[in-house]
Design a protein that fits this description.
The complex is a heterotrimer of chains A (469), B (101) and C (446).
Chain A lengths: L8 H9 L5 H19 L2 E4 L10 E4 L26 H8 L4 E5 L33 H8 L5 E6 L5 H7 L2 E4 L19 E6 L2 H11 L28 E5 H5 L5 H16 L3 E5 L2 H22 L18 H12 L2 H14 L5 H24 L2 E5 L15 H5 L6 H5 L4 E9 L2 E8 L5 H15 L10
Parallel strand pairs in A: 2-3, 2-4, 7-8, 7-9
Antiparallel strand pairs in A: 1-3, 4-6, 5-6, 5-10, 9-11, 10-11
Chain B lengths: L12 H10 L6 H18 L34 H5 L5 E2 L2 E5 L2
Antiparallel strand pairs in B: 1-2
Chain C lengths: L32 H13 L3 E2 L5 E5 L9 E5 L5 E10 L2 E14 L3 E5 L11 E5 L6 E7 L6 H18 L13 E5 L13 E6 L2 H20 L8 E3 L10 E2 L10 E2 L10 H9 L5 H12 L1 H9 L3 H6 L4 H15 L8 H9 L6 H10 L7 H8 L4 H14 L1 H8 L6 H11 L6 H13 L1
Parallel strand pairs in C: 10-11
Antiparallel strand pairs in C: 1-4, 2-3, 2-13, 4-5, 5-8, 6-7, 9-10, 11-12
The structure holds magnesium ion and zinc ion.
């Protein structure tokens, strides 16, 4: 009997190498776990019964195109759509021999922070099924937390890997923009979208990042890594300068339990030899959210224009002309959140408003980059809570879009700057996981892995949800 | 969390309708009502970016400063006609069929 | 442009597509280096400056032939700007400013079926073929410097010739690899400002464009003379019904919401590349027209250059005007590719055109493009101009037709044609008519 709740990828890989289990048995074990728990959690939109590959199986967020396997991005408008091509990351996983377990649930078009915006129903948090797993990669983080996948791919635009990783008590990396191919990722906001790994441990994340990272000729915005991905070994943080951005740690709305857990982790970092100091990101935090909610919807309004009922996906029946067909198809196919963002973005790009909104937001983005660059003159890494709160109740924020948007207030600033961020669980607050966000300069993934690995060991957080132990 | 808010109506009902038309989204009366209200709240919140005087700041279109990324002019195999049309909601022979313009 | 599908004009529908040009979810554009270089090359040929930093933008609008819901184009930072071209005309040269030459992607093809075949109005459905979607397309915008339909046509022909000579495109209007929209406005002589313009679309030949512009000029003048005002609108001409009035498009007011394409990075052409491309430029068609005009006059010079025959003209020795005329008329009618012709041999054929029968001349021209063509051999084999060869034939025919000879000598000189015909028949059309005429006259006088 394989204990999928505890098994790390490295351990699973050892079992395979030693011939103690076959890849098919391992795959089956995770699908069995899903059969037991996913009726309640709904992390998967579909599972794959016929695995191909001899490695450790993987779950893939439904925003990532998988040839021949339905890819809906959590939207009704893509119901039944089976890609005729693999995304580059899916192809790289295939080449690495990772059998596909299934496609994970998500907020529609990755727009959301709770996975409640899925057209196929919400995913629930394995730590407390009355609560959300975070989002938009909530299906992937819940699957990993509940032992229904050893690792998973997610995507992160404003915090969609880091925030649900925090809420589900797992590790999630949002890589440096441009290090992982977006080819075949159903686009939300092109200048922000990044695919990244989700797993139970930092080392497992590093393994998966090694598989997916690197320049892709099919994505003009990718670059080669500056150095190969290293598996972290370090047990201390000697010589590391860690900055604690005041605004990210004191922001309005951060729960006391979160501050406490994060404070303890920062203290522990000091004990491990890191030099801790305060730094400032005033405009990044104050204007990050507004900036993000102009740039991301603007790009989304254009990226989602291709869902027109002509070549694939839903087409509404009408007796009218092609415009009526468009209007009705998009009305019926998109949920409220994509509609809000499409309209917001269309407005922000429209004649007379471009300069005040999109143009201005791009300039704010420059300010945010510069503030972060200045912070990295004095520090190697920055830390803060990943999410201001632990997992909230289902339905708590669905009526108020602004409240939902605020869930990403701490992850958005560094995302706008194109920086990598890693969330690791650092403790519990009211029995729910708290995430610690580590932010580094561009291409500093190895440094993030080293620091997070040392902290992870020192924190010895038990990633198995208490109710499932 | 979104900074200070102002009390002006950021977007009128007619503007919401206009935007929906540009974005090719049908809206029912109730939807129009609801979205107009929500968009107003969101626009008020995001409108705070205009508080900053950034006239000397260059815009960031991209977090990475790259240029001249291209591919050589070498044709690659195409999809078969069947693959191209595999997901088509409607087809006529080997073409995608849509209602008249 | 942004995918690697081959350029296709006549392939079966939807057989030349990929996830990128079908705008499948997640597919991403990658620019074609050659298309970028060719745009720079064309820009240089049009006297443009090449931008050190150029950006692709998204132009957002919904239409079934626009699969992504946006076209990747260039907006305020195009590759080539501020050019000018000289347009030689019968009354001297004029200058046309080139505002910009930018790179974008072509749309798919939509066929409207049901109702009046092929027309938007009255059709009940449309069929979309994405083969053409994503083909690289250079859009060139001129300044409002063209003053007549004639001049516009002249400019377009020069532009086409430039594109063809650079090897960028065959620029064939029937295929759609060259298309143009013309903006027309009229004003009183001496008036400074331009008045409201209308845009003419769908024109598929130079002649059609010229006619369309003329009619539009007349229409606008008519409106002003009747005290009306011209509306800014787009007019679609139906090429199959040249006399029909233009169709007004009922396009809604557009707001394209241009913004920098976040899936692409800027183009920053290397100065070394620009200089290398500049070095590839040869004498422009306009320059060649001006040069040849002194030799053969404007009309022939323009004809030679815009039909791509001036290179052969320059290679072919002999009387300038004779060579030019033969190239533009007889040789053109044979369909021989000028590039395949041996100019020295062609010169010999042209030199002897007065001495040989027209049919033989035309046959020699038609053969002039074949490898190893020799005028000497061909004309020797075909046209018999040798008197010692012709005389026995002529003598025999005069001997056989004694009564006609008598009649001629009695004053029926019209019979000369009869004798010429007999000789031609006897020689299988190969006799040189000029020589035959001379010999017949001489012998009949005797
Ligand atoms: Mg254009
Ligand atoms: Zn293609």
């Amino acid at each position: 009997m394989i204990d999928t709740l505890r098994l790390t990828v490295e351990e699973a890989s050892g079992l395979l190498e030693r011939g103690e289990v076959s890849a098919a048995e391992l795959h089956r074990a995770y699908l069995d776990a899903a059969a037991r728990r996913d009726d309640e959690l709904h992390a998967y939109l579909c599972t794959v019964d016929e695995p191909a590959g001899e490695g450790v199986p993987i779950a893939i967020k439904d925003v990532i195109s998988t040839k021949g396997v339905e890819t809906t991005a959590g939207s009704k408008i893509l119901a039944g759509y089976k890609p005729v091509f693999d995304s580059t990351v899916a192809a790289r996983c295939k080449e690495a021999g990772l059998p596909l377990l299934g496609k994970t649930n998500m907020d529609e078009f990755a727009m959301g922070s709770s996975t409640e915006n899925s057209a196929y129903g919400p995913t629930r948090n394995p730590w407390d099924p009355s609560r959300v797993p975070g989002g938009s990669s909530g299906g992937s983080t819940a699957a990993v937390a509940a032992g229904m996948a050893p690792w998973a791919l997610g995507s992160d635009t404003g915090g969609s890997i880091k925030q649900p990783a925090a809420l589900c008590g797992v590790v999630g990396l949002r890589p440096t923009y441009g290090t992982v191919s977006r080819y075949g990722i159903v686009a939300f906001a092109s200048s922000l979208d990044q695919v990244g790994p989700i797993a139970k441990t930092v080392r497992d994340c590093a393994h998966l990042y090694r598989i997916i990272a690197g320049r892709d000729p099919c994505d003009s915005t990718t670059v080669e890594l500056r150095e190969p991905v290293e598996l972290p070994e370090a047990e201390d943080l000697r010589g590391l300068r860690i900055g604690v951005p005041k605004e990210l740690n004191d922001a309005e709305g951060i729960e006391a339990g979160v501050t406490e857990s994060v404070g303890r982790a920062i203290g522990l970092a000091g004990e491990l030899g890191a030099e801790i100091g305060e730094c400032r990101l005033p405009r990044s935090v104050e204007y990050g959210l507004p900036c993000y909610y102009l740039i991301a919807p603007s790009e989304a309004s254009s990226n989602l224009a291709r869902y027109d009922g002509v070549r694939y996906g839903l087409r509404a029946e009408t007796n009218g002309d092609v415009r009526t067909m468009y209007d009705r198809t998009r009305h019926d196919g998109f949920g409220d959140e994509p509609k809000r963002r499409i309209m917001l973005g269309t407005y922000a790009l429209s004649a007379g408003y471009y300069e005040a909104f999109y143009g201005q937001a791009q300039k704010v983005r420059t300010v945010i980059r510069e503030e972060h660059a200045a912070a990295f003159e004095d520090f190697d890494l920055l830390v803060s809570p990943t999410s201001p709160t632990v997992a909230f109740e289902l339905g708590a924020r669905t009526a108020n879009p602004l409240a939902m948007y605020a869930a990403d207030v701490l992850t958005i600033p560094s995302n706008l700057a194109g920086l990598p961020g890693l969330s690791i669980p650092c403790g519990l607050s009211d029995g729910l996981p708290v995430g610690l966000q580590l932010i580094g300069p561009q291409f500093s993934e190895n440094a993030l892995f080293r620091a997070a690995h040392a902290l992870e060991r020192a924190l010895s957080f038990d990633y198995v949800p208490e109710r499932l132990r | 969390l979104f900074g200070r808010m102002t009390n002006e109506m950021a977007i009128s009902r007619d503007e919401v309708l206009h935007v929906a038309r540009l974005a090719r989204l049908e809206l029912s009366e109730q939807e129009l009502e609801r979205f107009a209200e929500q968009l107003n709240a969101i626009l008020e919140a995001v409108g705070t970016v205009s508080e900053l005087d950034l006239s000397d700041v260059e815009p960031t279109a991209h977090p990475l400063e790259l240029a001249n990324v291209w591919a050589e002019d070498e044709p690659r195999p195409c999809l078969s006609v069947e693959e191209a049309l595999a997901n088509a909601p409607d087809r006529e022979d080997d073409a995608f069929r849509v209602p008249a313009a | 442009m942004f995918c690697r599908c081959p350029v296709a004009y006549f392939e079966p529908p939807n057989s030349q597509t990929c996830p990128v040009c079908l705008a499948h979810p997640g597919a991403m554009p990658v620019p074609n280096r050659k298309a970028v270089e060719w745009t720079i090359l064309l820009g240089l040929a049009l006297g443009c400056e090449v931008a050190p930093h150029a950006v692709f933008h998204r132009k957002n609008y919904f239409y079934p032939d626009n699969p992504k819901g946006y076209q990747i184009s260039q907006y305020d930072e195009p590759l080539c700007v501020n050019g000018r071209v000289v347009v030689p005309g019968p009354d001297g040269e004029s200058e046309v400013g080139i505002v910009r030459a930018h790179l974008e992607e072509d749309a798919a093809k939509t066929i409207h079926v049901g109702g009046a075949e092929g027309r938007i109005h009255g059709s009940d459905r449309s069929l979309v073929d994405f083969n053409r979607a994503g083909t690289p397309l250079v859009e060139i915008v001129t300044a409002p410097d063209l003053r007549s339909a004639e001049q516009a046509k002249r400019f377009l022909q020069l532009l086409r010739q430039t594109v063809v000579e650079l090897g960028i495109s065959d620029a064939e209007m029937e295929k759609g690899s060259l298309r143009f929209d013309v903006n027309v406005s009229v004003r009183e002589a001496g008036e400074e400002e331009y008045r409201t313009r209308t845009e003419l679309k769908n024109m598929n030949s130079f002649a059609f464009a010229a006619r369309g512009i003329e009619r539009e000029i007349e229409r606008q003048i008519g409106i002003y003379e009747a005290g009306g005002t011209v509306e800014q609108e787009t007019l679609h001409f139906d090429p199959s019904r040249v006399e029909a009035p233009p169709l007004r498009s009922k396009e809604e007011a557009q707001d394209y919401r241009y913004f920098p394409e976040p899936d692409l990075v800027p183009l920053e052409p290397d100065p070394g590349l620009v200089e290398r491309l500049r070095g590839e430029l040869r004498e422009s068609p306009a320059e060649r027209i001006s040069r040849l005009e002194h030799e053969v006059g404007f009309a022939l010079a323009e004809g030679l250059v815009t039909s791509g025959r001036d290179e052969l003209y320059s290679r072919t020795p002999g009387d300038r005007s004779a060579v030019a005329n033969v190239l533009m008329n007889e040789l053109a009618s044979t369909g021989v590719d000028p590039a395949s012709v041996d100019a020295e041999e062609l010169a010999k054929v042209i030199e002897r055109r007065a001495e040989i029968p027209r049919t033989a001349f035309m046959e020699a021209l038609a053969a002039s493009g074949s490898p190893g063509f020799s005028a000497e051999r061909y004309l020797g084999e075909t046209a018999i101009a040798d008197v010692s060869e012709l005389d026995p034939v002529i003598d025999r025919i005069l001997g056989e037709h004694g009564s006609q000879v008598d009649a001629y000598r009695a004053g029926k000189e019209g019979l000369l044609g009869f004798f010429v015909g007999q000789v031609m028949r006897e020689t299988g059309g190969k006799a040189n008519p000029k020589v035959v005429n001379e010999r017949l006259r001489e012998k009949l006088r005797a």
